[in-house]
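ugh ok fine here u go
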Amino acid sequence: MTLSSLIFLSFLSAPIAYLAARYWSPMIVALIPATLFIGFTLLTPAVMQLEAIVQHVHWIPSLGISLSFRLDGLSLIFSLLITGIGTAIFLYASAYLPRTWQTPRFFATLIVFMASMLGAVASDDLFGLLVFWELTSLSSFMLIGSDPSQAKSRRSAQQGLLITVAGGLAMLAGIVLLGDLAGTYRISEILAADLRPALTGAHGTAILVLIALGAFSKSAQFPLHSWLANAMVAPTPVSAYLHSATMVKLGVYLMARLSPTLSDVALWTPLLISVGSITMFCGSILALRETDLKRILAYTTVVSLGTLMTLVGTNHPAAVTAMAAFLVVHALYKACLFMVAGIIDHSTGTRDSSMLGGLARAMPITAVISCTAALSMAGIPPLFGFIGKELIYEAALSAQMPYMVFAAVILANACMVVVAGTIALRCFFGVPSKSFTQSGSGPHDPSIRMWIGPLVLAVLSLAFGFMPRWIQGLLAAAAGAVHGDAIEFQLSLWHGFTPMLALSIATLAIGIGIYRRWARIQHRLKACELVDRWGPDALYDRALDMLTKVSIWQTGMIQIGSLRHYMAMSVGIVAVAGLIAMALNGAVVLPQLHTGDAGVEIVLPVLLMAASIMVLRSRSFVQGIISAGTVGFGVAVVFLLGGAPDLAFTQFSVEALSVVILLAVIGHMPFRASDPRSSRQRTRDALIGALFGLMFMVVMFSVVALPFNEHLSDFFREFSYPLAHGRNLVNVIIVDFRALDTLGEITVLALAALAAAAVFFSTGDQSRLHAGGGRRATRKET
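structure:
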């Protein structure tokens, strides 16, 4: 099975998922990600040998854009996580979600979400990646807002969409600049090119900042992280899938993918490390404030994303290795713990950790799964999380991270210990609160469809801890794809007494100390109103309120209900913009005027100007229409004297018809007898009209001053009779060479005439209808 066929099959599976969930069983849908997982597994041996699989599918050949797919170590590890964890999520969702009319649509949307992720990580074209990138935003919007009847659901879905799409727009600008600089939009070609000289200046900084904004918004970096926690209003399967292996890591993937090129920018390391460190710190504080299990896990995801972004920005082989390992570590325990949180909520009716406790006896299977995943999260041997944590500390020491960044890393890992203790010890072995004891209705382990997926992920965390060589080759391929060269490292559960082990023990001690005082710390952090009042989530609401107020003010200033005002604004802006553009680009050129043999040509412009002034000074519509007709007739005389009798005849006919029709309309419409404008308004309109005329005069002078190109006129003279069988060039151009354009103009005029006729006739019919209805009502009342 080829790479492109796997991507296309994932999208084509959406209608199959809909039909399976509607007419058979949602459990069947889990076969789709399982099949894709097998397909990517079959491609693993080639990628493990550092041989990337590349395929191209023509998309927009005229623009040089194709759907190019490339599978290397980095994209393979993401693809396996997306499909492997997706299988567990789909199986879990089939038992977790009730069967309603919305269930088929939910599974179809989840398939599109999975397919979009696969397309994004496998894309070798920047525009293709952007398309799949935005598809993940759109599908996640539908998944987060799967219950549109709830205000929180609508608000959270809108927030996630606005933040990620705004970042995507910034990323689009960066992609265009990067592709233009490299001369190609193929990612593999960009990485192979030597762009270091071009990226050292402001141009490279702009590209990095724009692309980083897109990555930060998608991967919930500070201060764009608030949407991720609010997305917890979505069903638990969505939360587990969103936070473990899919959309939130897209930003990390993008920066890791482009790191061989963009790391040459001087701002690379300071930007990514500072943003990642602040994200780790803020995520840790916010996680300690919460008691809702899903929101606690959501903020630890923010912490993990900050850790990953810091490792990518460190630009060191040890950091790249730690990033690849922590990707797998986090995906395994986070998906498992989210599903455990859903099981607890499904069984007890609450996710409040302060109300839970003593669930181990009633839910032994869930307790074992939760404790295994929590130990990996806390970095306790022999779980794979311990190896990942030591690799992070090794990267921090090898790259000599600043002390503040090192402190943020220690705090982040200590926070993981606290949260792991909250989920495993407090919920399953702690003493439940009195309110929970009174409201409990018999907690119990769920069906096998709900716990088999988390169990497999927990077992993998344990297996990779005991036997890290099983996954070492895959991690080496991913790290080599990011670094650009092969990286040699050896994964092991025990490295002896090293500084990394000492740091792990210190982190565990700090975490246990915080956990023992967690209730007091949580209460004090919760009482801090500064976070709720001035945090990113509150600032988001204030930004939307301000945008609404600005929109209302702008609408009130522009849309005042006056057609004259709209015309004045449109004409004035076009005139000013045209003059400024010509002046800035040096396009204003005045031709040489020959007045030696001028006669009547001098009189006509004076008469036209006098007629134009009469239009401005007219006090009635009749006088204005006649004055405007005089201007048109004068222009027709200019055409006649210029040797264009056909144009003059056309102009005479148009002006005569216009004057007659307008006078007929005025006779039947309730216009005022005099012009209602004030002197100030008339002066403003005169200035705008003069400015617009000046703009056209400058344009015409500049055009006349250019050397005349007779190529087109020679073509018309030569081929008018042979091709169109006509000797009148104007008629041939209008009827034959510009036939479609003329047809379009006729169509517009016909539609305008029909619309005008419909308005006139419908107005009369409605007046008679209202009059008749009034008479019928009067007769009825009588």
